[in-house]
């Protein structure tokens, strides 16, 4: 291994050790499971904003989005980013304050627990279903994060994939199980800074290596449809493709997923002062739009670098590695550039780890709080509960490691998991927060209908093609809302006793009476 790669590895090792230290520092601040899973609702506005967005983006921001832009041009990357940006803003504007006040009013520390208390579901049917949804979708989601880390190390340093993946996973498990929500949120803030630095350095160095901005734009303009938001570039034929309005709507539907993402909703619930959410919203929205814009630009710049020969052409389907190739090129310029390249690669780790730690906590809370404590009524001390909570993080992490053993086997699940959460939880959350007539029967039916429709549309309807070739989140989300409303209206009488109490709590939460 050459000096360049040794220096890059040292920079990445320092970063990983720093994350473990962070977990140790915060381990003593968790005195109860409420602290472990929600940080005692003590997050500041800036940490809330950046941890929410860092936990959202994952390695998709630094690898997936540039890769899409590099391979096919602007349309898919642009419309996806626009949908996600709009979804981010609306989620902060509409959902954040409401769920912060409502969850505190009810004493909820997890999303399934909020559903159960909101609907006075004494049998905890809602929380069980929600917990199962979280466990089923988050385990492969976490595994995909472990997979990304392992693939990064193994491809760069020519080490065994499983060994590299295992080391990365162990680091994430250590600081998450020790520090809990506060460590995860604070590390996410640090990781968002690292991700931002990586984006800026890569795009600046890339433009320089491509021969300047004029060369980048000239190359992009020479590719048919590459800069056309209604067409796009087909790398297989070297000609312009087509991106009709229906596909644009389907692509932008990614933004609907935000309303049902447990690890993001938990950040809203955890902020210290709900009045600071406006500041958090501005910080989060600005960062998301800028970060995704720069990520798309990296793909365009990468195409220019390939055109002028500074980066070798990438194999078909391997376009997401462009940021790694740019970092390797930077690292070849000397000692300091190699260290900077290591920081850039740490940005990829940061993007992955900031998502995996939040997903681990959300999945573990579903096991301990929603299933063991609430559903099975196990009476345990705070000390024992903390041990179980940390154990749940480790167990779920081990299952994810086993899932990620097969290199490259779980990346395709990410978009499907996003659709699953968005369709099962999104409609349920919106109606729970903003429609007082929603009943527990409607919530159960809507949650199941949305989740099932994701499977039905992806595997039975979408393959038909034509007008049915839509991202499964859009039809499943609409189905979940419709079924929830219909069943809720049909069960008003059956829910009459609970509805009076529910409506009183609903109004008090709306007035900020906690």
Features of the shown structure:
514 residues, mainly alpha, Sodium/glucose cotransporter, two-stranded antiparallel ribbon, 19 helices, 75% helix, globular
CA-based gyration radius: 23 Å
Class inferred from helices and paired strands: mainly alpha
In N-to-C order, the SSE pattern is: HHHHHHHHHEEHHHHHHHHHH
The geometry reads as: globular
Q: Please give the count of helices.
A: 19
Q: What low-confidence regions span 5 or more consecutive residues with pLDDT below 50?
A: none
CATH architecture descriptor text = Up-down Bundle
Any idea of the CATH class? Mainly Alpha
CATH homologous superfamily assignment? Sodium/glucose cotransporter
Strand ordering within the main sheet: 1-2
């Amino acid at each position: 291994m050459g000096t360049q790669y040794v220096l890059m590895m040292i920079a990445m090792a320092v970063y990983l050790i720093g994350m473990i230290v962070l977990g140790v520092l915060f381990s003593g601040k968790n005195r109860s499971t409420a602290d472990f899973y929600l940080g005692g609702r003590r997050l500041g506005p800036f940490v809330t904003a950046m941890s929410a967005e860092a936990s959202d983006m994952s390695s998709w921001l630094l690898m997936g989005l540039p890769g899409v832009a590099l391979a096919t041009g602007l349309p898919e990357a642009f419309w996806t980013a626009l949908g996600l940006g709009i979804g981010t803003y609306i989620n902060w504007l509409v959902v954040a304050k409401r769920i912060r006040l409502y969850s505190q009013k009810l004493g909820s520390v997890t999303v399934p627990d909020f559903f159960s208390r909101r609907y006075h579901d004494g049998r905890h049917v809602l929380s069980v279903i929600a917990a199962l949804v979280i466990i089923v979708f988050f385990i492969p989601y976490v595994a995909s994060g472990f997979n990304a880390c392992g693939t990064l190390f193994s491809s760069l340093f020519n080490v065994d994939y499983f060994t590299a993946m295992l080391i990365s996973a162990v680091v994430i498990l250590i600081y998450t199980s020790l520090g809990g929500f506060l460590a995860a949120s604070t590390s996410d803030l640090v990781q968002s800074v690292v991700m931002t630095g990586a984006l800026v350095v890569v795009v600046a160095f890339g433009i320089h290596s491509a021969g300047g901005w004029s060369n980048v734009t000239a190359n992009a303009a020479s590719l048919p449809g590459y800069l056309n938001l209604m067409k796009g570039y087909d790398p297989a034929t070297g000609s312009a493709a087509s991106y009709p309005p229906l596909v644009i709507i389907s692509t932008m539907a990614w933004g609907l997923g935000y309303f049902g993402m447990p690890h993001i909703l938990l950040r809203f619930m955890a902020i210290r002062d709900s009045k600071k959410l406006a500041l958090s919203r501005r910080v989060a929205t600005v960062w998301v739009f800028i970060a995704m814009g720069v990520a798309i630009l990296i793909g365009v710049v990468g195409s220019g670098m390939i055109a002028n020969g500074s980066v070798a052409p990438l194999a078909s389907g391997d376009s997401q590695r462009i940021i790694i190739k740019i970092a390797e090129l930077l690292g070849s310029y000397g000692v300091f550039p190699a260290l900077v390249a290591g920081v850039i690669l740490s940005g990829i780790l940061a993007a992955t780890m900031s998502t995996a730690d939040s997903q681990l906590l959300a999945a573990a809370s579903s096991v301990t709080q929603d299933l063991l404590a609430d559903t099975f009524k196990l009476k345990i001390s705070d000390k024992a509960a903390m041990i179980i909570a940390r154990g749940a993080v480790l167990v779920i992490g081990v299952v994810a490691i086993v899932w990620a053993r097969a290199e490259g086997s779980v990346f395709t699940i990410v978009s499907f998991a996003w659709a699953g959460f968005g369709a099962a939880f999104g409609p349920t959350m919106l109606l729970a927060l903003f429609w007082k007539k929603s009943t527990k029967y409607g919530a159960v039916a809507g949650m199941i209908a949305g989740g099932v429709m994701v499977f039905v549309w992806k595997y039975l309807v979408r393959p038909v093609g034509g007008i049915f070739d839509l991202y499964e989140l859009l039809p499943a989300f609409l189905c979940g809302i419709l079924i929830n409303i219909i069943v809720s209206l049909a069960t008003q009488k059956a829910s009459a006793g609970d509805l009076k109490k529910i409506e009183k709590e609903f109004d008090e939460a709306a007035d900020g009476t906690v």
